[in-house]
Every structure is written in C-alpha cells, then in structure tokens.
Amino acid sequence: MFHERPIFICLLSLFLLLTGCARVTEPTNTPTAQIRTPTPSFTPTSISTPTSTMSPVPSLTPTSTQTYTATPYPTPVEAADVIFYNGTLITIEDSQPVAEAIALRDGLIQAVGSNDQILALQGSDTKIIDLRGQTMMPGFIDGHTHLLAFPDRMGRSLSEAQDTAIQYGLTTVNEMWADENFLNTLWEAEQKGSLHLRVNVFPIYNDGNLDESRQRILFKTWYPAHSPILDPERFLRIPGIKIFMDGDNYSPSRGCWAVSEPFPPGAPVLGRGVCGTDRGDLYWSQEELNQVVSQAQAAGYRVAFHAMGDRAIETALNAIEYALDGHSNENYRHQIEHNSLARPDLLPRYEELDVLTSVRGYGDFCDLQFFVPEFGPDRYTWYVNRYVLPNLDIHAYIETDFLWTFDPAIRFTRITLDPIMQLYGIVTHRYVNEDGSVCEPDPLAAAHSISIERALQMLTIEPAYAVSMENYIGSLRPGKYADLIILSDNPYSVDPGALKDLRVWMTMVDGKVEYCATGNESLCP
Ligand SMILES: [Zn+2]
C-alpha cells in the first residue's frame, strides 16, 4: 500500500490572509514529521517542526474563501475530515498529556486540544463523533512479535492474523524474524494493498538454530544485498536485522541461554540435554560479532539481538560499543531483545550505551523459587531485572514474542498477543492461571513496579522509536498518522487489577477504521 499524499508547508499569520507556502524536501530517512499544519501559530498542542519528506509537490494556491477574522481560536485553512470530541485522550505527549478532542485530515492528525479548539475545525463535510467520555489513545505497537510469520501453521491467513492484531488495538507490529520467502510474502501483500497495519521487519542474519556440530547457520538473505527500508510512508519497512546470540533452554537445536558462570550442577536445563556446554550456547565470538555489527551499522541497519543469558547480553553490549565507537546509539538504535538474565553490573552499560531493550509484559512471576535450581540462589534474581530496565535512563518497549504455537484468541496464556494483557502484566506483575485464578507476584518482582504511564509508553512511542517512527506514530500529535484506538475505560482510573478487563472498541490505522466492536458503531466514523 503506497500513500500518495501531497505534502506542503504553508506559512500564514494568525489573523491574516494566507501569504505563502514553502516546499521542503529532505532525505526520506530523516526522522522528522511530515506535517500539514493549519498554521504555525495555532497552538492547541505542541506542533513539531514543519518539514516534509518525499517528492516535489504541488503548491497550495490561496483561494478567496480563505479569509480570517479575529476569534478566540483561529479558523483553520482546511476543515477536518473527522473530529472526535468529548473524550479522554491519552496523548503520550509530555507537553499535553491529556486532551478532550482530536481532528483528523487526510489520514493525519490535524490537531489535538480542547473541545472548543477542535470543534472550530468543523466543516460542512466533517464527521463528528461524540466520544461520550470514552478514552482514546494511540494504537498499540508490538515491539517484538512473530504475528505475521506462519499463521498458516494454525490454518490462518495473513489477513486473519492482521485482523486479530487489529482487534486487540495493534496498529503497528515489529516482526522480529524473516527469511527471504516471508519477506516476499509481505512484499506482495504490500503491493496488493492488503497490509492493514504497519509492519517493520527484521530479517535474520543467522538462524535461531545451530547445525549438527553446534555451529551457527548464517542466512544473510536480505542484508547485505539490500539497503534498509525506512520510508515512513511505507506499510512495510525493513529498519534492521536480527542476530541470534544464544539459545532458548528448550530445544537442543537452539541450545541454552549463554551464561557467564556454569549452570548449577543438577540444573533442570542441563538434565534436559539441551545445552552444548554448562555455560550454555553462545553463537558468536566477540571478534566475529564486532565485525558483523559494524558492517550492518555502516550499511544503515540497526541490529536487534536475541540475547537471553547474561553472557549473550554482555557480548551484544560489547559489539554495540565496538560498532558505535563513541557515537550515540540515538543515531543507530541497536536493541537487545528479551534480556532474560540481566546481570546487575550490566545495567549501567545499557545506560552508557543507550541501548534499547525489549521486556515481556505478561508472564508468570508468582513463584520465582522455581528459578533457584536453574540459575542458583543469587542469579535467579537477575531474572527480575527486566522490570528494572524500563526505569533506567534507556528506551524500553514491550515484546509479546507471540508466535503461532499459541492461539491468539486466548488472552491469558503464557504467550499472549493482547497488549491489554501485556499492560496488566507489566504494571501488576500478576498472572492469570489456567483456572482463571489470579496469583500475586513474588515479593522480588512486586518490588520493581512499572507505572501505567511508563507501560503505555512501552506500548506506543517506545516501540515506534525502536524503528525510527517516533515522529510519525506512537502518540497523538499533529502531523502524525491517525493510528488510534478507543478503549472501554481509562487505564489511569481503573483499579490496576482491572486493567485486564479493558477492551478495544475501535481501531483506526492511517485514518481508516479497521475494527469497530459490535455495539460501538456510534464511536466509529
Ligand atoms: Zn522472538
């Protein structure tokens, strides 16, 4: 799906006639918002720097109807296509965290503000939706998923997989695995216009499995033959590559988490015969990895590392440090996925290198004593450090790590696609058992709380940042794409234990309603 939008920037004074327009053209991968601002001095919200991307565009011809008179709020140049008002808008913007109303035009957010400010943008063709106090926020973004890979294994189509995600309020997914065949499938879907949510794909550089002699298997099917795809207009983007650092503790072909000190004698994982060594399976030497990450970075790719054990994490951090060579990761955005055993002395290194991290939101943290025999009495506490990461001065986003050995319709299962369950999990650290009972977290996990505010960032603007889309999606700000959801209640006002009962009533992607829950049609334009 390609979005042809005329992009232009108009400069006009508040109460005067339109005086002129300027064309701005920048490289497509510059992370600035493409924005069509009604007027720079109309400030119901913070309006970001008006710049644009893409090709030359027609200039806007002033018309005789564009005359303005002094009013409390300026009359817009262009009327909104859609206005939602009388709501509780959670914007995920520091400058204006809440608002009452939002105006949309051409699939973009036109303005965010008070009812009066936004209703002033009403024109004769504007659809007006009364939210009746309902909560609206940016669409959820899954920072690490396998949603679109292999739905056919469960008898589902790509289209059904997307629909499931959209019903859960997801408007963008970061797909953390792709081979050439899967890329081609997504490519065709984009060409046919059958991608209904934004997809950022990370092709694999090496396989997640080892060969018979426990050596890594290189893929290199996309990079280095191609450049990254960073164009924010595209529904299919390829911002980075995925590198597997270590195993998963479950299958011999993947091996075990790479740990710095041997698993304790008698550790269950050793008994399962999964590990290549008693320190797990590290797929890369430091020297090899340093070179690969440097080369990928030089080609414009960020690297997402699957790293679970502390030795895998440390090796990835070292490689990031080597590749950055003193430069800021702000420019590159290398990221470490899972972070399952974050050793305490590594935590300052995440901060020093400004490394992005994925954190599972919903998981069973009720009886952590289970991990003592696996990792030892000291190291099992590292398992909880995932809940320390989001409160460090780094970027962190929620991963579902959803894959099609689980049923996406089951919300309470160990691997759930539902971002509402991820929100509930990361805020409360509670877990819903198979019988529906709820268990309280281990005191160690309970001690590391994540605020609702931080959790919502981790489901919106943070995963957008991870793929350099933070100026286009992930918050309610003029100029961003109209990727929005309406919730059944306000996450800030419900009891944390009731967060799991929130439901999504509408999902809009790119200004288009892609899901409208039965009975809530009046909320869907
Ligand atoms: Zn994964």
Which whole number gives the mean pLDDT? 87
User: What is the percentage of strand-forming residues?
Assistant: 15-25%
Tell me the number of structural domains: 2
Low-confidence stretches: 1-73
Name given to the CATH architecture of the largest domain: Alpha-Beta Barrel
As a percent range, the share of helical residues equals: 10-25%
Bound molecules: zinc ion
Query: Termini, distance in Å?
Result: 22 Å
Question: CATH top level of the largest domain?
Answer: Alpha Beta
Number of DSSP helical runs: 12
The CATH topology of the largest domain is TIM Barrel
Based on Cα principal axes, name the global outline: globular
**Beta strand count:** 25
Spatial arrangement of strands, main beta sheet: 5-4-9-23-24-25
CATH superfamily (homologous) name of the largest domain = Metal-dependent hydrolases
Structural class: alpha/beta
Radius of gyration: 24 Å
Taking the sheet with the most strands, its summary is:
6 strands, mixed
Descriptive account of the structure:
Mean pLDDT is 87; it is low at 1-73. This protein is an alpha/beta fold and 525 residues long. The chain folds into two domains: 61-137 and 480-523, Roll (Urease, subunit C, domain 1); 140-466, TIM Barrel. The longest helix has 15 residues, at 310-324. The chain contains twelve helices and 25 strands. Bound molecules: zinc ion (ZN). Zinc ion binds at residues 144, 146, 176, 401.
List keywords for this structure.
525 residues; alpha/beta; TIM Barrel; 2 domains; 5-stranded parallel sheet; 25 strands; 18% helix; disordered N terminus; binds zinc ion
